Amino acid sequence: MKTTSFITLLLAFFVFAGLQAQQDEEMKMLFNKKDKPDSEKQKMANGGYGSFSIGWTLIDGKDAMLFGGRAAWIANHHFGLGMAGRGFFNNLNSNEYYDPNNPYDPNKDPEYALAGGYGGIFFEPIVAPMSPVHVSFPILLGAGGVTATPANWENWGNSNYDPNNYYYNVDTYFVFEPGVDVEFNITKFFRIALGGSYRYTSDIYLTYIYYDKNGDKQDPIYINKGALRGFNLDISFKFGWF
């Protein structure tokens, strides 16, 4: 993992260094009404943006929702540096409902979901940022936490639901997430990005334990150590000075 991180950061440095000659180029948008005369054009050496995103991924082999945000400083239009974070919740298609007459079926493992989040520092080399459609390569390095919860949150509002029937196991992990975004310059201060990335995490150690209505502990379910590793797809909305 250390070797991969070093190589990725080294490549990012060379991309950044090789693109500095473009810093005086005029930024182009998809919806420019008209070109401004040279006297009115402004060249910005530094900028920044904030963004929010929503996306999809697989966690523990199940569909999961992703939501997140970034805050970054941009140097010479070509390199972003800042903080980023994501939250997630999987097992969105669970059909498990609480039956007060039979809350635990010994012949069937109770369904669980993994919920949590992660965040840290991120680097973002940006290729040809003045083009109305271009690419960037965000790289996130950080840490996060995850817990195993009952799969269907509708149970939480059910008067028959007893949270004491569940044991909440929590673990932390490190994360390395390289990705690629295809960005569209909508206006001078607004961009939309379609992104893909791969989330690599350290091993997690989680068990899901259920107690039946008599308070008897059932056999634990041991969750895959690599359950959080996988590909992500998302859409981001960026606002700022690019």
What does this structure look like?
- Strand 1 and strand 2 (62-75) form a beta hairpin.
- The chain contains one helix and twelve strands.
- The protein has a single domain, classed as Porin, CATH 2.40.160.20.
- The protein has 242 residues and is mostly beta strands.
Alpha carbon gyration radius: 23 Å
Count of beta strands = 12
Helix count equals 1
Class per helix and strand makeup: mainly beta
Q: What is the helix content?
A: under 10%
Distance between the termini: 32 Å
User: What can be said about the biggest beta sheet?
Assistant: 9 strands, antiparallel
* Number of individual domains: 1
- SSE run: HEEEEEEEEEEEE
Task: Identify low-pLDDT runs.
Answer: 1-24, 97-101, 155-160
Q: For the residues shown, what is the average pLDDT?
A: 79
Assign the CATH topology. Answer: Porin
The CATH architecture comes to Beta Barrel
- The first-level CATH class is given as Mainly Beta
Beta-strand residue fraction: over 45%
Shape: elongated
